[in-house]
Write a structure and sequence with these properties.
Elements: E1 3-6, E2 16-22, E3 29-30, E4 35-40, E5 45-49, E6 54-59, E7 66-68, E8 72-77, H1 95-100, H2 144-153, H3 171-186, H4 207-222, E9 225-233, H5 235-246, H6 256-268, E10 276-279, E11 282-285, E12 291-297, E13 300-306, H7 314-330, E14 343-347, E15 366-380, E16 383-397, H8 403-417
Parallel strand pairs: 12-14, 14-15
Antiparallel strand pairs: 1-8, 2-4, 2-7, 3-6, 4-5, 6-8, 9-16, 10-11, 12-13, 15-16
Length: 425
């Protein structure tokens, strides 16, 4: 019997998806579980498997169409059976109109469902206040003499800070710039190059960027965050990593982040309130420990999920995360690889960031932000010596947990990071 395939819901806040590419053609055989299409959500492009086996009898939407969740996109059946068109077809035959007129696309829906699903991309840190758009340059705020001198010397008034009343550029400001150029030339340094002002540029936000904006605004507006930071001694961890990687091929080497994911997963067993989500007036403590890891992709960040990370050995955690990160950058993720996280980690250590505060990824209860491993001068037993240190900051939903519990989590995490043999036993 023919089965109608619908646009799947690949996340609890997904309202629509874009049919990027069909992997099967009409009258082509398809097995249950075989990849049928590539669908782009707000977060990523994922490969969607066919829930039924048979022959592709109808492709109901065109490539490029934006289709609401739940509407039919294809029909799979036997080769000779009579196929009836579904009563409600997706508006996929007019994909160009949906693409050219994004204002006609229904807005994303937010569902407070208790089951964690596909997390939105993570913000790596607390939002920074954007710079105000540049206004017209200060050409009208210069004295006539200053304008004439600037013109003669070919100086850009927009690059000069005025010292006169109200920021007005006066003669002494022009002379100061010229004097600075002479001193630099005498010292063998090039004179300052006048800056040319650039016009404002308007750039449309990508679907991924829109999703990040929506989810992070929702998180900061609705979740009462509190933050805790702890510094760890990681000399032993770095040495164990070095020894392990001498035994592994280049494509299988273990990262510091792999140790952290495994350590966090084991620690969460002791702190169910941090491996939880809020459902009305009740707290859902998740039985599985699924760690979402932020991955930088073109246009933003998204999370890949290591399912049951507490049940897997370190090398398996490392292999899965490495493969998922590579597929994320290629847009080849599967739905289960970006949904179901119960706790998240964002690591900016590779960018030489000492520490930062991450925004919680709803509906999770907490997120761990990892800074760089640094060799510092430390005091141990009254003596100053070199030592490796790393800071981690925990952001917690204050509705689900409190400062003391968050502090105990960070202490317990240290038992694994500072005694890393526990992570391979």
């Amino acid at each position: 019997m023919a089965e109608t395939i619908i646009m799947p819901k690949l996340g609890f806040d997904m309202a629509e998806g874009k049919l990027v590419r069909w992997l099967k053609k009409v009258d082509e055989a398809v097995n249950k579980g075989e990849v049928l299409a590539e669908i782009e959500t707000d977060k990523a492009t994922v490969e969607v498997e066919s829930p039924a086996g048979g022959v592709v009898r109808r492709l109901l939407v065109d490539e490029g169409a934006i289709v609401p969740v739940g509407l039919p996109i294809a029909i799979v059946g036997t080769k000779d059976e009579k196929i009836e068109e579904p009563a409600e077809k997706a508006a996929g035959s007019n994909a160009q109109e949906a693409t050219e007129h994004p204002d006609l696309i229904p807005p994303g829906l937010i569902s407070p469902g208790p089951t964690p699903s596909m997390p939105a991309p993570l913000s790596a840190a607390v939002p920074v206040t954007p710079m105000a758009p540049r206004t017209q340059g200060p050409l009208g705020k210069a004295s006539p003499l200053a304008k004439r001198l600037a013109g003669e010397k070919k100086l850009d008034l927009a690059s000069i800070i005025g010292s006169g009343p109200g920021g007005r550029i006066v003669r002494r400001d022009i002379e100061a710039v010229l004097a600075a150029g002479v001193k630099m030339a005498q010292a063998g340094a090039p004179a300052p190059i006048p800056l040319t002002p650039h016009a404002d540029e308007s750039v449309n936000m990508s679907r991924l960027r829109q999703a990040i904006a929506r989810r992070m605004a929702e998180s900061k507006a609705n979740i009462p965050h509190f933050y805790l930071t702890h510094e760890y001694k990681i000399g032993a961890l770095l040495e164990m990593r070095r020894q392990l990687n001498t035994l592994l091929p280049d494509e299988g080497k273990i990262s510091i982040n792999d140790f952290i994911v495994r350590a966090a997963a084991l620690t969460l067993r002791q702190f169910p309130n941090l491996n939880a989500s809020l459902n009305g007036s009740s707290v859902v403590r998740h039985g599985a420990v699924n760690i979402g890891v932020a991955v930088s992709v073109e246009g933003g960040l998204l999370t890949v999920v290591c399912q049951d990370a507490d049940q897997k050995p370190l090398q398996q955690v490392s292999s899965e995360l490495r493969n998922m990160a590579a597929r994320a950058r290629l847009g080849k993720l599967r739905p289960e690889e970006i949904e179901g996280s119960t706790f998240s980690i964002s690591n900016l250590g590779m960018y030489d960031v000492e520490d930062f505060l991450a925004i919680i990824n709803p509906p999770e209860a907490a997120i761990l932000a990892i800074g760089s491993a640094r060799q510092l001068a430390v005091v141990e037993e009254g003596a100053v010596k070199p030592g490796w240190r790393m800071k981690a900051s925990l952001s917690v939903d204050h509705r689900l947990s409190d400062g003391a519990e968050g502090a105990r989590f960070l202490q317990a995490l240290g038992a694994y990071l500072e005694q890393p043999l526990r992570l391979v036993l």
